[in-house]
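Technical annex, item 7. During the second reporting period the consortium partners agreed on a shared format for inverse folding records so that results from different sites could be compared directly. Each record opens with the tokenized structure and is followed by the designed sequence. A conforming record, contributed by the partner at site C, is shown below for reference.
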């Protein structure tokens, strides 16, 4: 195999950027329903052609790498399908409408955005999963925010900012464990060191949301009584429905695997449907059994008498996740081909090799690499692993402790993934919340302040030492 040059490696990336730009311009929000997938596969074809024709990479090598990348997403795909079931069953069973009604009464509009961020952060720390947090309490908070009159981008930004803060610092988080393990840093040492950059970032984020809440807190707040009344007329609102979130939280606390927790929660929600929401089910179909199957697997619509609420309580079940799964598979094919041909490593090494001579340059290169890997591979786990492996030797060579590397990876590869439309995280959260990635991106303050804070902290040099044993 011939080592590809940086210029050759850039060709598939430039092709992807151009094709994605064109598809987004032409198709807008519909670009994720097929055009983006075609852009990824066409870019893969360019990569494979160059790899086999110029670099003499065997097709069997490329195929094995693609299979490996796709295999890594298997559990995530199952989780996505179950999340589709969960979000639909929690809505039609009345769990989310109940949380919305109670939340509207408890949370004042002026503090809603900051509260949504803080609540998401707390739940995510406890669960160790931003995906589970957003798929459960995140959907309820989105409904409350809409009822209070906030724009979707602000609400989703607050939810995602809190959820990814918790995911980043929780010892139960797979990304936290992954970043610490691949860099060779003890887990709690990694978490404590991360707090030096993460704490000021979340404080700044909460201040921004608090100011925004005070500024927008009275928008359409007079309509909340109308929304509450419409939900109460359509669904049976009762505290008994809160048993499901409580049991779900307990299962998460007991560290039951996510797939089991989400599926069990969906089944409990189905039981609540049959007990409390028979009239709603009969709106979907004249057969209760058929209504349940449609709810879990297909699109449903419930008439509340208020158009905005009709959009909120409509669901798409597992079917709504298929475009996301399709995009994930296409992204993994592209990432696998680029890795097999050696183009990722060659391209990034050429860009960052001159930056790593100083402390600030080394951290900045690590952060930028984590972001670039998320863009090119479409997966945060691959980004964390490759970034840590690419810079591990350089950190050791310059005498920096491994916790600086693990923190730099988390400050970039973990939190930026949700901001990229074709990344597994960006696709998933946009699908679950029903808010396009580019809509919530400007308001995910925590996610893009984290990389900047990491570089700023490196410039200060506070608690960055060499050769600590």
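Designed sequence (site C submission):
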């Amino acid at each position: 195999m011939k080592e590809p040059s940086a210029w050759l490696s850039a060709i598939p990336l430039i092709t992807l950027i151009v094709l994605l730009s064109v598809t987004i311009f032409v198709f807008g929000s519909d670009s994720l329903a097929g055009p983006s997938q075609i852009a990824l596969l066409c870019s893969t074809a360019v990569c494979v052609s160059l790899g086999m024709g110029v670099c003499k990479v065997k097709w069997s090598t490329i195929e094995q790498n693609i299979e490996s990348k796709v295999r890594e997403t298997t559990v995530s795909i199952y989780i996505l399908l179950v999340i589709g079931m969960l979000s639909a069953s929690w809505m039609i069973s009345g769990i989310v409408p109940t949380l919305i009604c109670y939340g509207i009464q408890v949370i004042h509009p002026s503090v809603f955005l900051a509260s949504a961020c803080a609540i998401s952060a707390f739940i995510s720390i406890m669960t160790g999963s931003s995906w589970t947090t957003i798929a459960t309490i995140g959907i309820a908070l989105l409904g409350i925010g809409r009822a209070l009159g906030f724009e979707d981008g602000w609400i989703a930004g607050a939810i995602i900012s809190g959820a990814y803060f918790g995911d980043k610092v929780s010892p139960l988080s797979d990304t936290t464990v992954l970043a610490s393990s691949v860099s060779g840093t003890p887990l709690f040492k990694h978490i404590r060191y991360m707090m030096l950059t993460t704490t000021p970032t979340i404080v700044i984020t909460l201040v921004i949301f608090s100011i925004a809440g005070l500024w927008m807190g009275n928008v359409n707040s007079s309509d909340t009584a109308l929304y509450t009344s419409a939900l109460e007329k359509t669904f049976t609102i009762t505290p008994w429905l809160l048993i499901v979130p409580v049991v779900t939280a307990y299962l998460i606390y007991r560290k039951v695997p996510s797939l089991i927790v989400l599926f069990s929660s969906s089944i409990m929600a189905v039981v609540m449907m049959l007990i409390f929401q028979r009239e709603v089910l009969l709106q979907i179909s004249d057969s209760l059994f058929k209504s349940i199957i449609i709810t879990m697997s297909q699109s449903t619509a419930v008439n509340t008498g208020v158009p905005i609420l009709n959009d909120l309580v409509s669901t798409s079940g597992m079917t709504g996740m298929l475009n996301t799964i399709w995009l994930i598979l296409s992204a993994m094919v592209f990432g696998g081909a680029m890795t097999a041909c050696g183009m990722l490593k060659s391209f990034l090494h050429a860009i960052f090799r001159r930056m790593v001579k100083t402390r600030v340059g080394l951290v900045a290169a690590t952060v930028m690499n984590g972001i670039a890997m998320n863009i090119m591979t479409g997966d945060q786990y691959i980004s964390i692993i490759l970034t840590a492996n690419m810079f591990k030797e350089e950190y050791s060579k310059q005498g920096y402790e491994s916790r600086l590397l693990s923190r730099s990876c988390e400050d970039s590869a973990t939190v930026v993934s949700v901001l990229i439309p074709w990344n597994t995280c960006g696709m998933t959260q946009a699908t679950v919340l029903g808010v396009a990635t580019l809509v919530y991106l400007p308001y995910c303050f925590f996610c893009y302040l984290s990389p900047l804070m990491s570089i700023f902290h490196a410039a200060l040099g506070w608690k960055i030492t060499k050769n600590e044993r």
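The chain has 24 helices and no strands. The CA atoms of residues 127 and 255 lie 8 Å apart. All partners now use this format for quarterly exchanges.
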